[in-house]
Design goal:
This protein is α+β, with helices and mostly antiparallel strands. The chain has 19 helices and ten strands. Helix 6 (about 205-225) crosses helix 16 (about 420-435) and helix 17 (about 450-460) runs antiparallel to helix 18 (about 470-475).
Length: about 500
């Protein structure tokens, strides 16, 4: 009984389903002192092989998550494992070759194939806390103290029934935990997709980052193991980091679309106002020409200048970066004026239009950029309302810090150096890379990968804003390239 209690504690602590099933079978075989065993789990109307072990043959399958390649057993009374589950009773058989009423063709065929001899058998059903059918433990060939095959002891049935009951409840608990985690992970992916779907200019950003990130973390683990070091990212830490990636832009749910989707410096209303104003200037020039205040040559020059100004303003509004020449041209346009219908002098472009057109890089004004940058603050605020488990306790802080840079020039907290965890540094590299190469951004076309990598390298080595070692490993990894298997998936 002490052994049963110890095994109960051992099983209740396990959360990995494959290891749990292997431990259940191992515990049952140790208690029963037998040579072989099989653990089945119920799946609809069949029992599926999950773990198989035969010590004298040195065979063990299923512990790595890949179930034995055997056909499932129908829930039919001819099959002894199904019979035990259907009738909810433990079945003990002294010799399967002389046991009428059940179909033992499977063990007999196995014996013929391997040279093994199946003799005694103990079949124990596993039922959950409310009597639900969960699976079956089938133990083979009990051994006496000299190692000879014998029948299973009668009192062993009660012991194994106790173990099977604990095992069934633990299996259910692990399943519930897995279902809850998958439900939460699905919710996270849905919320991330909602951010991406909200704007066509942000489509699939988080999904791409999660794909890059998963490959990169696996590479870092593989490199560490190859160097004789412990893998830096355990399954739990890997899951925590990937969830941070999925949620890093959740704050964009509240970012105004007119800011997030702003493809040009000028708003549609400003562009329309400039076009209308330049057309008015041309019409006034034609009137002045008809009334003799403007020569035909001067009218031609005016119309040419306004047409060129309109084209130039359009180019400036959409340019990713304004050159010194473009800024000088903007200053010349700013100085141009005309007389309106009331004889008042008016500028070709207003102060507000000039302020937007003179943005050197990107399409956002300082106020719009502040609104855009606020998405990380909102991310932190939204995630603060989620009760993350201990295993996911860093998701909020990692996700909300993905715009922090090592030199302190990032935001929102202007963290620097060691204050920025390795996980955040990885997310930042992934985010910047995807932003550079993405072809769905409103303010710029996607750039070639090699140019993007050169920018990352420069930010790490010359500017000191990214982690140099992680950046170098990211560049070496080529983790943004899909595997042949992934390319076959639409």
């Amino acid at each position: 009984m002490k052994k049963v209690l110890e095994m109960g504690v051992l099983l209740s602590a396990e959360r990995d389903m494959d290891r749990l099933l292997d431990q259940i079978l191992s515990c049952a075989m140790d208690l029963a002192r037998c040579d072989g065993g099989t653990l089945y789990l119920l799946d609809g109307d069949v029992l599926r092989f999950k773990i198989m072990r035969t010590d004298s043959l040195g065979t063990r399958s299923g512990r790595d998550g890949r179930a034995p390649d055997l056909p499932p057993v129908r829930l039919s009374r001819e099959n002894v494992c199904a019979l035990a589950l259907l009738e909810d009773r433990t079945i003990s058989i002294q010799d399967v070759y002389h046991a009428p009423g059940c179909d033992f063709s499977g063990p007999i065929a196995y014996d013929a194939l391997t040279g093994y001899h199946t003799q005694s058998m103990l079949v124990v059903p596993m039922r959950g806390r409310r009597g639900e059918r969960v699976g079956v433990l089938q133990l083979i060939n009990a051994l006496d103290s000299q190692g000879n095959i014998c029948a299973f002891q009668e009192e062993m049935a009660l012991v194994l029934e106790s173990l099977a009951s604990q095992a069934a409840v633990t299996i259910q608990n692990v399943r519930y935990i897995r279902e809850i985690r998958e439900l939460f992970a699905s919710f996270v992916r849905v919320m991330s997709a909602a951010v991406d779907e909200r704007s066509p200019y942000n489509a699939n950003h988080s999904r791409r980052m999660a794909a890059y990130g998963g490959r990169f973390l696996d590479l870092l683990n593989a490199q560490a193991l190859a160097e004789g070091r412990e893998a830096p990212f355990s399954p739990q830490r890997r899951e925590e980091l990937l969830m941070s990636i999925w949620l890093h832009d959740i704050g964009k749910l509240t970012t105004p679309l007119e800011v997030m989707d702003k493809a040009e410096r000028l708003s549609p209303m400003q562009k329309a106002a400039i076009r209308q104003r330049l057309e008015v200037i041309r019409l006034c020039g034609r009137i002045d020409c008809l009334e003799g205040r403007l020569s035909p040559a001067e009218l031609d020059a005016l119309e040419r200048d306004t047409r060129e100004a309109e084209a130039s303003i359009s180019r400036m509004s959409t340019a990713g970066y304004l050159s010194d020449g473009q800024l000088a041209e903007l200053e010349r346009l700013r100085a141009r004026t005309y007389l309106d219908g009331g004889g008042r002098e008016q500028p070709w472009i207003t102060a507000g239009e000039y302020a937007m057109l003179s943005i050197r890089k990107g399409t956002l004004s300082s106020e719009e950029r502040r609104i855009m940058e606020d998405h990380v603050v909102v991310t932190d605020k939204l995630l603060s309302r989620i009760s993350f488990s201990d295993e996911l306790s860093h998701v909020r802080s990692w996700a909300a810090a993905h715009h922090e840079l090592l030199d302190g020039s990032g935001y929102p907290a202007h963290l620097s150096g060691d204050a920025i965890p390795q996980e955040v540094r990885i997310i930042t590299i992934l985010d910047i890379f995807d932003a550079l190469v993405a072809e769905d951004r409103p303010y710029k076309p996607g750039m070639p990968v090699e140019r993007a990598l050169a920018i990352l390298r420069d930010m790490a080595e010359r500017e000191g804003r990214l982690d140099p070692a992680l950046t170098a490993r990211f560049i070496e990894s080529r983790c943004w390239e899909r595997t042949p298997e992934e390319r076959q998936t639409p």
